[in-house]
Amino acid sequence: MRQNKIFQKKRDEPVREFSRREATKAPYDTYLIVCEGETEYLYLNGLRKHYRLNIIANIIFIKPKGSAPINIVDQAIKHVESTVGIDHVKCVFDRDSHTTYHKAIDKLNGQKSKKDTRKKPTYEAITSTPCFEIWILLHFVYTTQQFQRTGTRSPADNLISLIKKEYLPDYSKTNEDLFGLLVEKLPAALKNSKKLLKENEKTQSNNPETRLHLLVELLINLTKGF
């Protein structure tokens, strides 16, 4: 079985065509992870390599053309409908100032496979507010601080500035060893992210928030028993 792994680094480049998968199903599940940006891919691919997930799961990364949430969801659905054997679909994108954020989540939640198969793919939005960097910050500290626009600086700009100033001066969105740089603090990130999600449920807030722990923990748990 050929293992497909692809990621487009340039935002303006269209995603490449995948080879059609063979009809014979591999003895492990296939996860399609569609990332909004390169940073998310670098972190998650680093996690995949660290835990040697390619041995026990087939993980496909794609980066669609355009970073709008609806583009990410549409590309994920398109790939599922043209590819045999996708079991789980994870769409990773930010709240940021995207106008299609809620539309994308609604479409993903209502999506059902058109394929005539016994096992239907599961779909899940892995979102962060204001952006992926809140997950990075939670590796260092638990916070409920809201991030807002100030002048010409976006909420994401302010969050990244805080990370660089207080915790990770050399932080770069294109650091290929991003996961390795943070792996020792991963338990704290998981704990803080879960705590924040529970707090937000009580306060009806979603700024800040991230659901990355759901995907990260799922992938790590695949290693149990191997």
How would you characterize this protein structure?
The protein is of the alpha/beta class and 226 residues long. It is 38% helix and 12% strand. It has eight helices and five strands. Strands 2-1-3-4-5 form a five-stranded mixed sheet, sandwiched between helices. Helix 3 links the parallel strand 3 and strand 4 (122-129). Helix 2 (69-81) packs parallel to helix 3. The protein is globular, with a radius of gyration of 17 Å. It starts with 29 loop residues before the first strand and ends in a 5-residue tail after the last helix. The model is unreliable at 1-25 (pLDDT under 50).
Keywords, separated by commas or semicolons:
single chain, alpha/beta, disordered N terminus
In the predicted model, the low-confidence regions spanning at least 5 consecutive residues are 1-25
H/E element string?
EHEHEHEHHHHEH
Count of helical segments?
8
What is the distance, rounded to the nearest whole angstrom, between the alpha carbons of the first and last residues? 20 Å
The rough form would be described as globular
Strand order of the largest sheet: 2-1-3-4-5
Main β-sheet, in a few words?
5 strands, mixed
Find the structural class using helix and strand composition.
alpha/beta
Helix content: 25-40%
Radius of gyration: 17 Å
Number of strands: 5
Percent of residues in beta strands? 5-15%
- pLDDT average, as an integer? 86
